[in-house]
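Dear colleagues,

As part of the handover before I leave the project, I'm documenting each prediction I ran so the next person doesn't have to rerun anything. This entry is a single chain, and its sequence is reproduced below.
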Amino acid sequence: MKVNCTYLIFRTFLFSFLLMISNEFLHAQQNPIGLFEHHQDVGDPKLKGSAVYDEENQTYTLTAAGENMWFDKDQFHFAWTKIKGDFIIRASIQFIGEGTDPHRKIGLIARDNLNTDSRYADACVHGDELTSLQYRTADGNETEQVELSVYHPTEIEFQRKGNTFIFSAARFGENYKSVSREMELNDEVYAGLFICSHREDVIEKAVFSNVRIVIPAPDDFVPYRDYIGSNLEVMDVETGHRKILHSAPNSLQAPNWTPDNKRLIWAEEGLLKYYELETGKIDVLNTGFAKDNNNDHVLSFDGKMMAISNHMGDDRISTIFTMPATGSDEPKQITDPARGHSFLHSWSPDGKKIIFTGQRDDIWNIWEVDVETKEEKNLTNTPTLDDGSEYSPDGKYIYFNSVRTGTMQIWRMKADGSEQEQVTFDEYNDWFPHFSPDGKWIVYLAFPKEIDPTSHPFYKRVYLRIMPATGGVPKTIAYIYGGQGTINVPSWSPDSKKVSFISNTKYPIK
C-alpha cells in the first residue's frame, strides 16, 4: 500500500498546529488568583463554584457545591498551583454562615491531577467537630483519614516532606497539634485551597486569610552562606491578620518600626533599607562606611537616633555605632572591637545607655555601655548564654533570654542587673522579648524544643507569642516559617496594635 508523503507531512503539520492552538487556548482559559495559577471546579458539581481574591486584605473567598470529597471520587472548588518537591501551605480559615450540612469541608490539598478520582492528601476541616488528614492512596480507591484532636480550628498548615504529609491545626492563640501519613504522590502536584458543600444543590462559602506557600530551605543548606527569600510582613496582634508588604528572593532581616509611623527599617546584605508605609517606596538608609551591618539595629525610644552593629576588621568583630535615625556618613563608634563582639539590643528610654550581648573573656553576657563615656558595665555573669535584652518602656526592668536552666527562656532583672528572675516556663526555646510602646504587652519568638537552645537558627517552623507585661499565660499569634532575622529587634507599631516581622520561602515558588 502506497502512502502519499505530502499527505503525511500535511497531517503532521496540522496535528502540531492544532496542539499548539489547544495549549494556548487552555492557557488563556486559566484563571490566576493571588498565589495560585488557576481555580476551577473538580468533579463537575451541579452548581458552579467561584474564587475571589481581595488584593487589599490578601484574602481568598471560595464558594462551592459538591456531593462530597470521600469514597472514590470528589466534587469541590479548587484554587491551585503546581508545586514540585517539599512545601508548606498555611492559612487562617473561616466558614461563612451556619451551613446546611455538618460535613461541609474546607482546607488545603495536594493532588496528582484534576480528575475526580485522583490520588491525594489533604488537611480537611469539617463543619462539625471533625478535623482530619484525608488521603486516597491510588486513583479510584476509597478515601481514608487520620483524625486530629482539634475542634473547629482557625489556623491550619499542610506540609510535605518527601513522602510524609503532615497536617497541623490550632485555634488562634493556641499551639499546633499534628498528625501525619506516609504515602506517595507525584513529585509535582496540584496544591492549594478547597471547599466542598457536601450537598449537590447547596453553595457554601469560606474565607482563607494569611495564606502562605512556603518552599523550605534544602536540608543541606549552610547557615550564613546559603539563604532563601523573604517576606516583609505586618500583623494585627489582636486578630492575627497578616499582610505582606514586600517580597524578595534574598535575605531580609529584623525590621524596626519607626516611632513616627513612617518607615520600616531592615537589614539586607550588610546594608540597612527602609520601606515607606505611605508610598511603598524602598531605599537605602545611609550608614556611611558601615556597610557590613548585621541584623542588630535599634531606634532610640524617641526615634531620633539609630544604633547599629557593624562588623570590623579581618575578624569581622561586631561593633556598636550610633547615628541620627535619618542616616549619617560618619556613625560614631561606641564599643571597642579589641574587647570582643558586641551585639546590640536596646537603648535605655532616656537615650543615655545601650545594652548588648557582649563576648568578654569568651563568655556571652549582657552588658551596658554609657553612650557618652563608653564605659561598660556587666549586668549578667553566668557561664551560659544570655542574649536578646531590652528595656521596659519605664526603664525599670530589662527583659532578656537565657539558657541557664537548660532551655532558652525569657528572664527579667532590674535595670541595674539585680533581682534576676525567670518569666517563661514552657517547653520551647524563647528568644527576643519586645515590649509594646504602651508597656502592656511583650511579644517574643518561640523556637521548637528540638533545636540547640543556644542557637536561633534560620528557616524553622516557629511561633510568635504574646503575653501581658504584668504576667500571665502567653498565647500564639503567628505561625511562621522563619527564625533568625524574623523579629530580632523591636518592631511594634507606635500605637501598640501591630508588629512587623520577616517570614521566609524560596523564590520562585515553583
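The chain has a mean pLDDT of 94. The radius of gyration is 26 Å.

All the best with the project,
I.
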